[in-house]
Write a structure and sequence with these properties.
Number of domains: 1
Radius of gyration: 16 Å
Largest sheet: 6 strands, mixed
Shape: globular
Structural class: alpha+beta
Number of strands: 9
Strand order of the largest sheet: 3-2-1-4-5-6
Helix content: 10-25%
Order of helices and strands: EHHEHEEEEEEE
Length: 184
């Protein structure tokens, strides 16, 4: 399973308390809201599946992306999810990456995820025709990402052939993006 995230802020009810603590500079405590996702990740990994997430992050990083890197992703990485970042300087969107979130299941079923302006999930849409996703049918490849897992590491990314077509041409991926370590 591969998830691609493009928003710089998501309004997720189960993260609100933790995000408020992060913004207030408090120490990280328990994170019960993310436990269900971590259980899903552990179960999938135990069943031999791979869980990947790529987040296109705009520099400078938003408070929410810093929160995800420092508090949320640490839990999901520990559960077995491979989280990577693609850094984008300002409006230089990487060529080949869509401007929408999606989940790709078993390299064949793409679900586009739609959010409102505040980052609240609205709906998902199963994309059944490869041209709808902007990718040729015989070239289903995820973005080539090199580097280490997000929590506390620098990662870099580069484009590869067969990636989804961007709606707006960009200058390519930006420099490595530091992901802030957790607040202690």
């Amino acid at each position: 399973m591969l998830g691609c995230e493009t928003l710089q802020r998501y309004d997720v009810s189960y993260e609100q308390e933790e995000f408020a603590r992060f913004l207030a500079g408090q120490t990280r405590g328990e994170f019960p809201g993310i436990a269900a996702w971590c259980d899903t990740v552990r179960a999938a990994v135990s069943a031999g599946k791979r869980m990947h997430r790529v987040h296109v992050v705009v520099e400078p990083l938003s408070d929410y992306v810093r929160f995800e890197c420092g508090w949320a992703y640490e839990h999901t990485v520990e559960a077995g999810e491979d989280v990577r970042l693609i850094g984008v300087a300002g409006d230089d969107w990487p060529a080949g990456l869509p401007h929408y979130d999606y989940w790709l299941f078993d390299s064949s079923q793409l679900v586009a995820m739609y959010y409102d302006q505040a980052g609240r999930f609205v709906s998902g849409e199963l994309i059944t025709e490869p041209e709808q996703s902007g990718r040729p049918a015989r070239r289903r490849r995820r973005p080539h990402v090199r580097g280490r897992a997000a929590a506390g590491h620098r990662v870099t990314a580069r484009g590869g052939r067969g990636q989804p077509a961007a709606r707006r041409p960009g200058a390519g991926p930006g420099p490595a993006v530091p992901c802030w370590p957790p607040h202690t």
